[in-house]
Specification:
The chain has about 170 residues and is mostly beta strands. It is about 10% helix and about 30% strand. It has a domain at about 30-145: Jelly Rolls, CATH 2.60.120.
Length: about 170
Amino acid sequence: MRLLALLLAVGLVRATQGYVPHDLPRPKTDCSGNVPQASSSAQQLDSPNYPNNYGNNLDCTWTIQSASGTVIRLHFLAFSVEDRYDYLNVFNGPAGSADTAAQRLTGNTVPDDFVSSGNTVTLQFTSDVSVVQSGFQLEYTEMSASSCPDPGVPDNGQVVSGGSPFGVGSQI
């Protein structure tokens, strides 16, 4: 009888302490570190728990590197963070090499592509104590340092080719 009472008491304590069975899925916790080296094939990087909401009080740092003599292109597929309070800093170079971010991204507008000036990019994602959103999803690729990426179609314009010897993606 005492054993049954003890088991019931342990069960009540666990229930009141928010006990969670071990077989439930856990959110991704990969919040920092080096990611696979950039290559000519696009690789993906997501904010923690994407496409579900990221957590509060995050301070995540990722370093992306490519081969010597190349640069890194970041292409954002989705971006949704609390405007002004949560942000993604994009640094040109390794962590600690620059005091200011090349870009500080916040809000819900998908950013334009970013092309580094060297073969290392550092990303720092920070969230505050309240309001979380889905975060971001991006692809990164390695490019020759001497090539120019296709800028795409202008926001309020069109790409016109006629009479020009240069086509989309031409190098000048």
